[in-house]
Amino acid sequence: MFIDIQNMSFSYSNSPANAVEDFTLTINKGEIISILGRSGSGKSTILRLIAGLEMPKGGSFSLGDKTLFNNHIFVQPEKRGIGMVFQDYALFPHMSVQDNVLFGLPKMSRSNKLKRVEEVLELVELEGYEKRYPHQLSGGQQQRVALARAIAPQPELILLDEPFSNLDTELLVKIREDLRRILKKANITAIFVTHNQNDAHVLADRIVKIKDGVIDQVGRPCDLLGSSTDEKGDIELLPEKELVSV
Amino acid sequence: MNRRIANVNGWTIGAVLIITLLFVPNLSIVTGIFTPASENWGHIREFMLLNYIKSSLTLVFFTAIFTVAIGLSLAWLIAQYDFPLRNFMKWSLILPLSIPPFIGAYTYHGILNYTGIIQKTLRNHFDVSVNQAYFDIMNVPGAIFIYTIFLYPYVYMITRIFLSNQAASLVESARTLGKGPMEIFLKVIVPISRISVIGGVSLVILEVLNDYGVVKYFGIQTFSTAIFQTWFGLGDLDSSIKLAACLMGIVIFILVIEWILRGGKKYSFSSTKLRPLPLVKLTGKKAALATAYTLVIFTIAFLIPVLQLLDWVVLTFGKVPMEEVLTYTKNSIIVAGTAASLIIFFSLVIGNFSRITKHKFAKILPKLTVLGYSIPGAVIAVAVVTTFIAIDRYLAPVYLFLGLDSELVLSVSLVMLISAYIIRFFAIGYNSIESGYTKIGTDFRDASRMLGVSSLRTFFKIDIPMMKGAIISGFILTFVDILKEIPLTLILRPFNYDTLATKAFQYASDEKIMEASQASLLIVGVSAIAIFVFNKLLGEGRE
């Protein structure tokens, strides 16, 4: 098994209840997994736990032959070799597209680095945008730069947090298909979090439904069809972009 | 168990170390409470204490109200509207910060007194003589006026930056919902800028409680003047430390209120896309009104005092040798620059620690360092002197080994003065850095680490460049404040080491107001240039 997550649990310091409880999942190499759930269900927390941005209370997680955490080990996020695309992309505003992508590349010659930038920008169809800055790009372009940046260091696993939440419908359909094509072409294992059933069905090989921090259902998209949704496929209609209390 | 240790990293160690160093001298105040009370203390407690509390709180209360009214209204005007002179006013309205309140106080007194320009003009040119009582500003309302006009920029500056960068979508949605400007101001702008306003006004309050120059000059009894009087007048350091402890009590009370008002509700925006607020163009009467309002504030708070100082400089030119003046200027820039740089560096370390450590301890600990700002300069001076003499004693064998023939090395050097500045002014730099960290959030940092980049490299490559604005504004605020500082510099400077502020203060307190104008104007000039540079750099890529 390429990825093995066993009994992962987590609680926030200001709350005694577990935000994630006994999350267990195994994933094959090259598989695309969708974690589907309402906002507040703990789905983003699961992603952050896998990334190493939050420290789990218990459980274990291994990627390939490396253990990334168990009761004795906690590997820092920068040492995990996992890529992540953030919900708001988090492109560094003071760096050009090229510098954003260059930023995460491991030590190699400048020419090799530039070659890699060229490769990934070609993959996301953004050749010629190297010198642009994030604020000069559209939402869809920003999203593709974020993806290119995450893919460039050739991570073993890529995590995507609500990758389509900032895109309009027309763009969404194209990008969703592009994303699957790009991930499959590069044979990258991916986990993405969404509240939208349609996204999950189109993109994922397997869907994990989360409810209140616990796995509710796991299965192939065709097996999970017909669950309660509205016609748009959203199971979550609450506005997510408002002030958040930290 | 091991996983817990993974949480304790270089940032934690650095932050705890710095906080300890900043906090230790404060402890001398706490221990001072428990020393046996002298006869003086009984007298002070019975007859004076209530008066000190009353006058200090009156000054704080009214200054806070007026600075918020002026600071917030100006911030909103500049952030949201375009009107004639707006670009000039945007940075000019910060300039009053370059005038130390004590210089402002003696300048305004000079303007308004019997031989001042107003009375003289009325008498000589219009043959009108007005009762001097109408022009007397050497009282509590006068002090509130002085504090308000020279301290409102704290509220203005912090709030304007916040509004320019963060309010766009909220204001626009309010407008599309059919809300008028007044309603937007009251229902959107006031609530969302609460945190920046509280941040700014808490600086103003701390400045007022610490001020010595204005109240001394105006003859108002407050905690600061009482502490000095008890220490130097009665020679009773123990009682003055007890007074300082009372003052700290008030400050802690204010900090708790601040914490309640903004703690727990620390807004960060879910969107990492920072979009500047587009300007609305004002025309006709409205534009004239906006220009007039900003112009009146600028004239009273900057133009009038500076013109008066210039007039005095011309009148007294040549009385103070140029060479001397250059030396004071150089000294001022060196000490203020060094201390401000160190403060920003320490703030960055502590701020980052507080941001990345998800423990209550990490949120509370940095608040302790702010206490340095609550302790009057004179009391910090005693604490620092005591500490440094102890260090020198401890290091005596090392000095001997190095062949130095003196036993006191650190305690007669600039190191001591700069340490005291850092303790005293840490809060100013830290506030700015902390709000900078709050603004950028943790997404960019997380993104960088997910790209395999270490915490330290992320700090230099991502956090620092994105915090440029906060770093520069923190540096400027600290630098300007140190430049204006009086009591610490007077007590802790090495022998014969004069700065602009000590020179200006000496002349003014010798009633040589005109001679003080040269050093005063230089303080104002250096500060104003610093503010200009700061605005230039900060303006890039923003608007």
Q: How would you explain this protein's 3D organization?
A:
The complex is a heterodimer of chains A (246) and B (543). Chain A is globular, with a radius of gyration of 18 Å. Chain A contains 7 helices and 11 strands. Chain A is of the alpha/beta class and 246 residues long. In chain A, helix 2 packs parallel to helix 4 and helix 3 packs across helix 4. In chain A, the strands form 2 sheets. A 6-stranded mixed sheet of chain A has the order 6-7-8-3-9-10, sandwiched between helices. In chain A, strand 9 and strand 10 form a beta hairpin. Chain A has one domain: P-loop containing nucleotide triphosphate hydrolases (Rossmann fold, 3-Layer(aba) Sandwich), CATH 3.40.50. With 543 residues, chain B is mainly α. Chain B has a domain of 281 residues: Orthogonal Bundle (MetI-like fold), CATH 1.10.3720. Chain B is built from 25 helices and 3 strands. Chain B has a two-stranded parallel sheet.
Shape of chain A: globular
Biggest sheet record of chain A: 6 strands, mixed
General form of chain B? globular
CATH class of the domain at 36-316 in chain B: Mainly Alpha
The CATH superfamily of chain A appears as P-loop containing nucleotide triphosphate hydrolases
Short description:
Chain A is an alpha/beta fold and 246 residues long. Chain A has seven helices and eleven strands.
